[in-house]
Specification:
The complex is a heterodimer. By secondary structure, chain A is an alpha+beta fold. Chain A has 13 helices and 19 strands. Chain A has a ten-stranded mixed sheet with strand order 12-13-9-8-1-2-3-7-4-19, sandwiched between helices. Classes of the chains: A alpha+beta, B alpha+beta. The interface between A and B is large, with 46 and 43 residues.
């Protein structure tokens, strides 16, 4: 096993997202460089609130099994720690346990043994409400103040784990081989390994920030990446020989999906990249120095939560008649009025009807600069209501009314819509909404995050 | 030097939009060179007021707006019209909200 010297720690990140797959041969190239740890994130809010709201995972279980088996094999051979963060995408306790079960299954099948540490990140709602009352919770960005009713409405609320809980998991039990964590700030596993080995936290967080996306910092963008962190700089290089990191690609990466180009807030502080230097040290490798980290006082963690918000049904239909297309807004408005009158027994505030008109403004809505519709439209009408049955019924009423709606100048009297699919009304199941996205003060960076150790054999 | 109004899609290397968390959308315009970046900056065309108009958002609601020379880029962060994935969503990843920026016209030297 490679031991980090005082001079250098090497980290291998196979991919920006566990479950998306990665080329095994590039991971092998990385292992030949003798990394001290493998880190990989599996979290994101980017595919929507339904993960937290309904307990769904980002990728299918089979894809997690496939990626984890490759990484556990690497761990077994190289005898280095494997750190996996934000299990299942949302990092809920439920998904930490799913990941643990997958590992047990693989270990049994392959005859492997390892020491596993699990870090949980679901936060007790009573605790959140107490902290809210004490004025220790603030909105993060353009988000309303947290209402205790929203805390109750959320399916689950997770807090983002910083570096400290990973290091606690490694410190309190000797020889931890694998960590599976709940929701973590994406750079935390890499930063934790480097900070634990005594390196500059600013460089550790910056390297973590770049590596959590895999080789997204390369040209062309790729999957697997290797980082070398030293006393006063770090270096970054993609593992696919066909890709390269350039000073421009590494510097510009910090813009990606971030609010600000050089101020990056995370658990316990803010990374400031305004004074960074980027140097091309080889054709494919870039050296970074000058990162700064300002600790936050008090220490805050980000809370994430989502709730269910009724049920949705949609219909999808095409329109090709130019006389119809020219009047689509007026016709739809009339149909919606008729539908609302028809369902007078359903309280109007309990359901919503939202047309999406592709070929007109389906992507940009009211911001669409092009005002002339295309020669054909895809019409999707979204109905959200208290139950699936009501949503589908209203959706069906709108579809049939629109199909047969009269309009001035109509000469196609048999029907207005071209329907590609059955069912004509499509139930979408429960809708979800993010309703907690706040910063909470904590007295200790580790207190919210229980660690459990177990031997897997 | 003679100039013609030229859309950013012909000048910039990258013009893109994406979520920055579930409540913000961030827009990046990255230029091919420091010279292009400086020329666009100097033109004075890209302002908070222009963004406010293009994205129908009050200037005081703009979260980030700036020319950042470290990366030869303009970065703009706006509140999302609705939380990501909420009822009525049109663009889960906010990946196709960059087009109004592509069409911004900057006086540019005739080739």
């Amino acid at each position: 096993m490679a031991v980090a010297s005082n001079e250098e720690i090497r980290i291998l990140t196979p991919s920006g997202m566990l479950g998306y797959g990665f080329p095994v041969e590039h991971v092998k190239l990385g292992l030949a460089l003798k990394p001290h740890a493998i880190t990989i994130d599996s979290g994101s809010t980017d595919s929507g609130p339904q993960k937290l709201g309904l307990g769904e995972m980002t990728c299918s279980r089979a894809n997690y099994v496939k990626d984890m088996e490759v990484l556990l094999e690497a761990q077994q051979k190289a005898k280095i720690p494997l750190l996996i963060s934000s299990a299942g995408g949302d990092g809920s306790n439920l998904h930490v346990d799913v990941f643990r079960d997958i590992m047990v299954e693989i270990a049994r099948r392959r005859g492997w043994r390892f020491k596993l540490a699990k870090i949980y990140s679901d936060v007790d709602k009573a605790h959140i409400k107490k902290e809210l009352k004490a004025g220790r919770i603030e909105p993060l960005g353009p988000v309303p103040q947290l209402d205790p009713r929203e805390v109750d409405a959320a399916t689950v609320i997770v807090a983002q784990i910083g570096a400290e809980p990973f290091n606690r998991a490694l410190d309190e039990s000797e020889g931890v081989d694998v960590i599976v964590s709940g929701r973590a700030y994406d750079p935390s596993p890499t930063a934790a390994m480097a900070i634990r080995a005594g390196f500059d936290p600013a460089l550790a967080w910056h390297m973590g920030k770049i590596m959590e996306c895999g080789a997204l910092c390369a040209e062309p963008v790729g999957r697997s990446v290797m980082g070398w962190l030293r006393r006063d700089h770090f270096e970054i290089e993609p593992l696919n020989p066909a890709e390269r990191c350039t000073t421009a690609s590494v510097a510009a990466h910090t813009l990606y999906e971030k609010t600000h180009p050089f101020l990056l807030a995370g658990p316990g502080g803010t990374l400031d990249l305004s004074g960074c230097r980027y140097e091309q040290v080889s054709d494919r490798r870039v050296r970074v120095s000058g990162s700064r980290f300002t600790p936050a006082r008090p220490y805050t963690v980000k809370l994430e939560g989502a709730k269910t918000a009724g049920y949705r049904s949609i219909f999808i239909a095409g329109a090709r008649d130019p006389i119809f297309i020219a009047q689509i807004d007026e016709i739809l408005a009339r149909v919606i009025d008729i539908t609302r009158d028809y369902y007078e027994e359903i309280p109007p505030e309990t359901y919503r009807i939202i047309p999406h008109l592709y070929g007109k403004n389906g992507v940009m809505g009211e911001l669409e600069p092009v005002k002339t519709p295309a020669h054909e439209l895809c019409i999707i009408v979204e109905v959200a209501a208290a139950t699936q049955a009501i949503a589908t019924a209203i959706c069906g009423k709108i579809r049939t009314s629109l199909m047969h709606a009269p309009y001035p100048g109509r000469i196609a009297t048999a029907g207005n819509l071209a329907s590609p699919f059955t069912p004509l009304e499509i139930p979408l199941g429960q809708a979800c909404e993010f309703n907690v996205y706040h910063l909470m003060q904590v007295d200790s960076p580790t207190a919210l995050f229980p660690v459990q150790h177990e031997e897997i054999a | 030097m003679a100039t013609v109004p030229t859309p950013l899609r012909e000048i910039a290397k990258v013009v893109r939009s994406k979520n920055a968390g579930p409540f913000e959308i961030t827009l990046d315009i990255i230029f091919k060179s420091r010279e292009d970046f400086e020329a666009v900056k100097k033109s004075g065309v890209i302002t908070r007021e222009l963004i406010s108009e293009l994205y129908n958002v009050p200037t005081q609601a703009i979260i980030t707006f700036g020319f950042f020379d470290l990366v030869n880029a303009v970065k703009i962060t706006l509140p999302r019209p609705r939380a990501q994935g909420a009822i009525g969503e049109t663009d889960m990843h906010a990946a196709q909200q960059h087009v109004p920026l592509q069409e911004i016209r900057v006086p540019w030297p005739v080739q």
